[in-house]
Amino acid sequence: MTLNNKKNYLKYFLIQLLIMKMATENLKGEQQRRLEARKNYIEQRLKPLDNFNSLSDGNKINFLQRKIKILGFFFSFVLSSTEITLSRTS
């Protein structure tokens, strides 16, 4: 390998190293941005739960019924999606 080839190889290697470093920094920045967006979304969408013990019995029942309805819909969706996936593979 001639001196000129060695210099070109070294330049190529350094450029590749720089590209990898920039890509790593960009990826870290993107991950941080997504984490901040997720955190902001959760803070905006989720309200703190009032003291559950301070609710009347009727309000507790109503609250729990609404949550059960939401969870029931979620689980039925997940189960139906799983059944569809299983039926496609069978």
Q: How would you characterize the overall build of this protein?
A:
- It is a single chain.
- The protein has 90 residues and is an all-alpha fold.
- The chain folds into two domains: 1-46; 51-90.
- The chain is built from two helices and no strands.
- The model has no long low-confidence stretch (mean pLDDT 80).
Annotate the secondary structure layout.
Blueprint: H1 3-45, H2 57-89
Concise account of the structure shown:
The chain is mainly α and 90 residues long. Helix content is 84%, strand content 0%.
Sheet with the most strands, sense and barrel status? none
Please report the distance between the alpha carbons of the first and last residues: 59 Å
Give the uncertain stretches in residue-range form: none
Oligomer category: single chain
Question: What is the percent of helical residues?
Answer: over 70%
Task: Give the C-alpha Rg.
Answer: 27 Å
What key phrases describe this protein's structure?
rod-shaped
